[in-house]
Design a protein that fits this description.
heterodimer, A: alpha/beta, Rossmann fold, FAD/NAD(P)-binding domain, elongated, B: about 400 residues, Fumarate Reductase Iron-sulfur Protein, Chain B, domain 2, 2 domains, about 65% helix, about 5% strand
Chain lengths: ~725, ~400
């Protein structure tokens, strides 16, 4: 950018603590074309003032030196003008204080070290920030929306024709989108179609109703926007969102369709009950699964499998092979409800029949508590918490069940005609890739992610519940999480909306998620590529394929703009228009570094703008002091910290470098899955280099904080500051 | 107890019976144990009513009937008030108590007459039958029921052995003495049954199974003093108001029983026959004070219950209101006799009121074994057992 204007806000304590004229000079020194200061830049008058100056001076970039970029972002927006927010308020005047020995905050004129008042250091920081802002804009380029050459497809592919798939297909079609529905069975309806009945999906959640799926099937089959393939599977998916090339295997023949986004609703399989021998399954004929009992109910013949005698009593064993590390470790969420429903079947078929339900915890999700209450009221339904310790053949063809740890306080022996095992759900993704992606990173969802959720195509984030790690592919229904029919319907609606959102984002040319404002994308200068494959391997979203030589082949609409590839590239050939190696280098170089022997340290912090930066902003609102030594550069993710940043900062003379990012590991909080984890690994390599240069490896440190760990973030920065004081000055100062 | 395996074969009829006796919400309980926690009477070593609730849900009739805990409950209503599921544990235990009375006593059909509204006319007919039979026998034919001088203050007198008995006194004796004997035998039989059941349920070791005389000697007096003082009842929180009227009522019954005993000794045995001057005679004073206390107690209970019912801390089932109104009728007819026979203009219909009074007293007498009134005997037994069990548990540990 050539004509950069700098606007310094004097409100919110900025003028009170900082010398505005000096800041203006610093901006000019860095090459700003115009510098203005004014109170309340965020006011209507303030904004009009900036607009007027942009016009008057022909500015194409402005550095707003005021508050954090996390506030007033909707105010400081100007058409065709690049905006950089220099954080003087939260970053300087509200967070940097001289703290006395008793913890009290001292005047800025007080001595920081002998002969140096605190104000000098505070001004040095503020000036650095202003210069960094200008320096950033100097190398900034306007992002251009990504527009593929090929025409994008806005058709939505739904994999699976069960209750979730049917709902998703209908929702998408009703929103005006073409839908292709692929169902592997010869009929639509999935699991629900095989049921006799299910709990009603509306208030009062007390009754059972015939399967809702029949209505959905006729709606789907009558909808001209939905093309249904039965007895069909997805043979392969190539390309990227908006440009997917999907091959569908229909009864042996292959068809190819262009697809924009995908809803994965392939559902679940019942758990393999043959593993439940300890509950008598397989050896005792009158022990069956809830799935088999449902079939029995659908046929309407409640007779014992062993001898055809009528069933007068049924015992349901809940959590059969569930919530147990040896079987399914999780709760399938539907089985308590299913057993209550099946108890109702048997009670309605024969008013003298009895149904026993032995549970560990009775879990009827949400308002289905009403259904539980209704069944509880039935005198013929007997409920107790308990542990089944024995299932064996009893007298007269009955099954003898011994239950311990009951609410009655003693061991019970119950003899029943039939035992029903409430078995759980296994998502199909646990056993097969389903998607058959032609991606460099494999045909299914990433195995490490699936492992985290026992094979479910789930997301780690409550804020982004539908996002799989494959952009443009959204999971819904029982493949996403164990759930009931009502939940699956709701889930499918959400997934359909996400698929539509994805298509709109691609059409407009910005990132799909979560950086939906971001029009920039990584650009690869392949002339310099050494085919090291770090980018293609490390991309958390599998956005990069490879050519036969090993060069990365970017698929921009799969990309989430996290910059992991940018951070990984040792050749530094991957850059964004608004975020580049050169840009950060320029910012570091713009700061002023005291001569060797000045005695006051300078520290650099690369802070993740998703969680750590908001935590520091909150610390500023609580006036929690951060060391004045720190210069903070926000980054989109720690994964987007290239080792060159560290090198630039070290050679500039910074005494220590802190990376502050999100928690990683099993309960990771990184928006981009592995950013901080990868950064940590990269910094370990840096530490080795430092050692070779006879510098302490601790000078480059990575810490993780959660967004709410405000005190922790402040403490980590203060501790790091103290730790660096134990070392000599960086010997590279002044080089 | 823990290692024993209990064979379960629930009887749906039992659960439905508990539901019809007032425990209709029993199935709503989900075993959170709020009830046992808030109950001011529940002992730490064997808390109730949480466990009784699931036993009832599963239809474990025998175990419930053999559990003294249901009698230690005074239906304070704290449990029902705090129950998050509105399962009304207090009412369930009340239903169980009615069920025990029914199960433990012989001639169950009599119990049915007391627990159903249609049984009331039948009870009246039974009482009338015996009263008329005795009247015809002692008065030598049907007296004129519209003339107090013909009935009860008429008829022949009898000289039996050394006793001098007018017809009205002999009539009372032939009705009520056998009735009392019948009730006492019935009660003793049923108390014996439940006592043995308690001993079995609580697995009292042989060495601690004392004889009846030792038990009575050691625990009866403390039990009675506790009952007279209402020490347990007064711990109630939600329905604190109930303790005082109930205590007054209990003392009223004691005074009235004492009056009756004095009259029996003085009139039937010693021959000082009534009527005595209601204003001057000390036995009359005793009777009138007892009667007034009875009316005060029963009216307070009736009013208190309707208030508590509005606050949903107690519910009144048919057997409850039956007993309340029966006692009220006895009080009213008792005073009615005194008033009617003293006012010449209406004196003639005293006999009808007298008959009515006798009918209600008859029903109450029989009800000592068959109505909710049986709690007097059953609860006393349970309190004795509770004192006994606490005592020997302490000795055993």
């Amino acid at each position: 950018m050539e004509k950069i204007g700098v606007f310094i806000c004097t409100s919110c304590d900025i003028e009170k603590r900082l010398n505005i004229a000096e800041l203006e000079n610093a901006a000019r020194e860095q090459g700003a074309a115009a510098v203005y200061s004014r109170e309340f830049l965020c006011s209507k008058e303030g904004k009009a003032f900036i607009e007027e100056k942009i016009k008057q001076d022909g500015l194409n970039a402005v550095a707003i030196c005021a508050c954090s970029p996390r506030v007033n972002y909707d105010v400081f927006e100007f058409e065709n003008v690049a905006v950089e927010r220099v954080n003087l308020r939260e970053g300087v005047v509200w967070s940097r204080f001289l703290v006395g020995e008793g913890g009290e905050i001292l005047e800025d004129i007080a001595e920081y070290v002998q002969g140096v008042p605190f104000k000098n250091e505070l001004m040095a920081l503020a000036k650095d920030y202003v210069k960094m802002g200008v320096a950033k804009l100097q190398v900034y380029k306007f992002p251009e929306p990504f527009k593929p050459e090929e025409e994008i497809s806005k058709t939505i592919l739904v994999i699976g024709g069960g209750v979730a798939g049917l709902t998703a297909a209908l929702e998408a079609a009703n929103a005006g989108y073409e839908v292709v529905l692929v169902e592997k069975e010869k009929e639509l309806g999935g699991f629900v179609a095989k049921m006799k009945a299910h709990c009603e999906i509306n208030h009062p959640f007390k009754n059972i109703v015939p399967p809702i799926v029949n209505e959905l099937i006729s709606q789907v089959e009558g909808n001209e926007k939905i093309k249904v393939y039965k007895k069909a599977t997805v043979a392969s998916i190539a390309g990227m969102p908006g440009l997917f090339n999907v091959k569908i295997n229909v009864d042996g023949k292959e068809e190819e369709v262009k697809i924009g986004a995908i809803i994965l609703a392939a559902g679940f399989k019942p758990y393999d009950a043959s593993k439940l021998t300890h509950l008598g399954y397989g050896s005792i004929k009158n022990v069956i699964t809830n799935v088999q009992f449902e079939e029995m109910a659908k046929e309407g013949k409640f007779v014992r499998p062993s001898d055809g005698a009528p069933i007068k009593s049924v015992l349901f064993i809940q959590c059969a092979g569930q919530r147990d590390e040896n079987y399914l470790p999780y709760c399938s969420g539907y089985c308590c409800l299913a057993s209550l429903k099946q108890a109702k079947y048997i009670r309605e078929a024969d008013p003298s029949a009895k149904a026993f339900i032995i549970y560990d915890h009775m879990r009827t999700m949400g308002i289905y508590e009403n259904f539980y209450k209704t069944l509880q009221d039935d005198p013929g339904v007997f409920l107790t918490k308990g542990k089944v310790v024995e299932v064996s053949e009893g007298e007269n063809g009955k099954v003898k069940v011994v239950v311990d740890e009951t609410l009655l306080g003693e061991k019970l022996e119950i003899n029943v005609d039939l035992v029903v095992l409430a078995i759980g759900m296994v998502p199909v993704t646990a056993e097969e890739p389903v998607l058959n992606l032609e991606y460099r990173q494999g045909p299914g969802l990433p195995p490490d992610e699936l492992e985290l959720f026992y094979g479910y195509a789930d997301s780690n984030y409550i804020c982004f519940p539908y996002e799989t790690r494959r952009t443009g592919i959204y999971a819904a229904g029982a493949i996403h999480q164990p759930m009931t029919i009502a939940q699956a319907i709701e889930d499918a609606r959400g997934a359909a909306l996400k698929a539509i959102q994805c298509l709109v984002a691609i059409e407009e040319g910005h990132a799909v998620h979560p950086r939906t404002w971001d029009f920039a994308y990584p650009e690869f200068d392949l002339k310099m590529c050494t085919q090291c494959k770090r980018c293609t391997e490390e991309c958390p979203f599998g956005a990069l394929n490879e050519d036969e030589k090993g060069n990365p082949l970017p698929n921009i609409t799969r990309c989430r703009r996290c910059g992991t590839c940018f951070g990984a590239c040792p050749q530094r050939i991957i850059n964004f228009k608004d975020y580049s190696i050169e840009m950060v280098g320029n910012m570091i170089r713009a700061t002023e570094m005291p001569e060797q022997g000045y005695g006051l340290y300078r520290l650099m912090a690369f802070v993740c703008e998703n969680d750590a930066l908001p935590a520091l902003d909150m610390a500023a609102y609580q006036k929690k002091p951060l060391p004045v030594t720190f210069r903070i550069i926000p980054v989109r993710c720690l994964g987007a910290v290239n080792v060159s940043f560290v090198k630039d900062a070290m050679s500039k003379g910074y005494d220590g470098i802190l990376l502050l990012g999100c928690k990683y590991g099993e309960n990771y909080q990184c928006h981009f899955i592995k950013g901080s984890e990868l950064a940590n690994r990269r910094m370990e390599n840096v530490a080795e280099t430092l050692q070779q240069l006879a510098l302490e490896p601790e000078r480059v440190t990575l810490h993780t904080v959660a967004i709410d760990e405000i005190d922790e973030a402040v403490k980590k920065m203060n501790d790091f500051n103290e730790e660096i004081k134990g070392f000599e000055e960086n010997p590279f100062k002044g080089w | 107890m823990a290692n024993e395996i209990i064979k379960v074969e629930p009887d749906l009829g039992v659960i439905k019976e508990i539901q019809t006796l007032g425990g209709d919400a029993v199935k709503k309980c989900y075993q959170c144990a709020t009830c046992a926690t808030v109950c001011p009477l529940s002992p730490d070593e064997a808390p109730f009513p949480r466990k009784q609730m699931i036993l009832a849900q599963w239809g474990f009739k025998d175990r419930l009937l053999n559990d003294p805990a249901i009698w230690l409950c005074h239906n304070c209503g704290d449990c029902s008030k705090y129950c998050p599921r509105e399962a009304n544990p207090g009412e369930v235990l009340a239903a169980l108590r009615l069920s025990v009375i029914k199960e433990a006593t012989p001639f169950k059909f009599l119990h049915t007459f007391y627990s159903k509204a249609w049984g009331f006319p039948i009870l009246i007919l039974i009482a009338l039958f015996f009263i008329l039979l005795a009247t015809i026998a002692t008065f030598g034919g049907i007296p004129n029921f519209f003339d107090a001088d013909s009935f009860p203050y008429g008829g022949p007198s009898y000289e039996i052995w050394i006793l001098h008995l007018p017809a009205r006194v002999l009539m009372i004796d032939v009705i009520f003495l056998p009735l009392a004997v019948f009730v006492i035998i019935i009660l003793l039989a049923s108390l014996n049954r439940i006592w043995n059941a308690y001993v079995e349920t609580y697995k009292i070791p042989q060495a601690y199974r004392y004889g009846m005389w030792t038990i009575l000697k050691t625990y009866l007096i403390p039990a009675i003093s506790e009952i007279l003082n209402h020490t347990r009842f007064e711990k109630c929180e939600a329905n604190k108001w109930r303790a005082l009227p109930h205590k007054v009522l209990l003392w009223a019954f004691i005074l009235l029983a004492l009056t009756t005993a004095i009259v029996f000794v003085m009139a039937d045995i010693l021959g000082f026959h009534t009527p005595w001057n209601p204003l001057l005679h000390p036995v009359k004073w005793l009777g009138n004070i007892g009667g007034l206390m009875l009316l005060y107690g029963i009216i307070s209970i009736a009013l208190g219950r309707s208030q508590a019912e509005r606050e949903k801390s107690v519910r009144t089932s048919y057997p409850d209101s039956f007993l309340i109104y029966l006692i009220l009728l006895i009080g009213i007819t008792g005073f009615g006799i005194e008033i009617f026979r003293s006012i010449p203009g209406i004196r003639s219909i005293t006999s009808l009121i007298y008959i009515a009074h006798l009918v209600f007293v008859f029903i109450l007498f029989l009800g000592v074994a068959y109505s909710k009134f049986a709690h007097l005997a059953f609860r006393t037994t349970a309190v004795i057992f509770d004192l006994y069990f606490k005592d020997i548990s302490q000795k055993m540990s």
